[in-house]
Amino acid sequence: MKAGEAPTASRTEARQRGQRTDGFLPLEDYAALGDGRSVALSGADGSIDWWCAPNLDSPPLFDRLLSPEKGGCFIIAPDGPFTVTQRYLPGSNVHETIFTAADGEAALVESLNSNTAGRLPWCELARRVEGRRGIVRFRFLLRIGTRAETVSPYLTHTAHGVLFHAGALAGCLRRSAGVTITREEDGETEGSFTVEPGTRETLAIVAGENEPLVLPDIAAIDQRIDVSHEEWREWSRRLHHDGPYRDLVLRNALALKLLLYSPTGAIAAAATTSLPEGVGGPKNWDYRYAWIRDAGYTIKAFLRIGAEAEAKAALTWLMHRLCEHGPHVMYKLDGHLVPDETEIDVPGWRNSRPVRIGNVASCQHQHAVYGDIFETAERFVECGNILDHRSADMLAQLATRCADHWRQMDSGIWELPEEQHYTNSKISCWQALARAVELADNGHIPATWRDRWARERDRVATWIDEHCWSEERQTYLAFPGSDMLDASIALAVRFRFGADGRMEKTIRALDRDLGAGPFHYRYSGVAREEACFLACTFWIIEAKALLGHEEEARRQFDTAIARLDHGTGIYAEMIDPETDAFLGNLPQGLTHLAVIQAASTLSGHPL
Q1: d(CA 55, CA 46)
Q2: With helix as H, strand as E and coil as C, how does 64-96 read?
Q3: Which of 85, 134, 290, 539 has its Cβ near the most Cβ atoms within 10 Å?
Q4: Ordered structural domains, the chain, with CATH
Q5: DSSP type of residue 362
Q6: What are the boundaries of the region Disordered (predicted)?
Q7: pTM of the model as a whole
């Protein structure tokens, strides 16, 4: 792949896409569909295996991703052997799968639909099959999930159609005239149809929860696939990014847009729960919440590429949550606090348990939230925008809180159970106080305690250099007294921390001790438990570029992007450095953000 090209479906792969092992698809075989409210994962074999409806953090209607035998799904596939290629339509989140069967070829075009006026007030999952060559017979299966055995799906017959029910959620399968139903039961509906060149058939699910249900005509639903495509194209056309990585940046921006929860402006960390960081291991977390860190980085990325409306909505949501609840690590998408973690009795992806709802880290304290908030605020005003009085006062109070508490231990960016004086956390406190001083000096926040913030900023820097630097190893350590290295310290270069070449030496140590090919583990010793953390690789690449090693950074960036190219441009949290298999939740916002940040820096436009 040439530098700057977005991933495409033309890449030759060693294995055939869409092949299941013990009922599970590889994570890299999924594309993501979204409408600003929910996200569905569509597999390369034509099966939608994950869809939380009506909202991104609702219980799943389709959960075959975590329960292959009993989980809900919506399968549309040729009735016989086939091969596939996948791609997003250019500039769009409408997705296309090309099925090549023995007697012909057909395209599955699918979308979580929107309208010209924006998000629909109901869920509309639309799937259109277009004949391209020969004659291809398709089968379909709609299996309604039991939401981890908490509901029992059933059908009701009305004058306007057959409805399915899963607890409080109700929906209807809409179909074009050529689609035949061969079996219709409470939990499952099956059928078939045939396409040839010039013909097409459309199936769709319209759903809602505890609300009246609109049942649009199938022709209107089919048309909205094209409307959605044009709306996505119009959105991406308004973005601006010059340089060799333009297509790649726009594709990653489209992936991030899927994670923006439009009813509130919250930004989900990922669209899934409990996809493992290591197969069979216990590191399976629920990421369908809004982290301050991810929200802050996303706001900066949206500002950089000209998505000002999304940036403003996300920043307003974040400021309101901070005023309402204080600096928690994460919040629910509706703004409430994240519930206690519970375990769900389903097998998990590739039998990796436990499957979780909620997140135990919601109760942790992480100093990094201070730096993330202030870096975001600084970027917002640097783009010519203004902070309101309430937000400015809240930020001033937060800076003083950081000045009061930076000496305390915390759980760190990796949310570890053992509290320590993590180096990254101290750097984040320095970052927060440094940005607070700059905001005060430029009249953006009250300057009452500006001088105290400056003094504490300098004390933090001195403490880090005295306690966290290893003269023997010539690197900053994960925390004082440890032998561990921590890849997140690479972020300090972007934060403008460090002097005397110490960050240069630290980056080299991270590359040497945590690297696995072009990728990197999060911290020392974790390779026994999980794969490489993709964001870390792009943080290190960006740091190299900022330190003046642009050509080296560019080579590493191009190699990593080529290895990530599985056909759709949707990235997970982690990658196996030996097989390039994805692990962890997806689409993972932090990965897409890190790619945008590194690409922007390599293009001469650091965020």
Answers
A1: 22
A2: CCCCCCCCCEEEEEECCCEEEEEEECCCCCCEE
A3: 290
A4: 27-236 (2.70.98.50), 238-602 (1.50.10.10)
A5: G
A6: 1-21
A7: 0.95
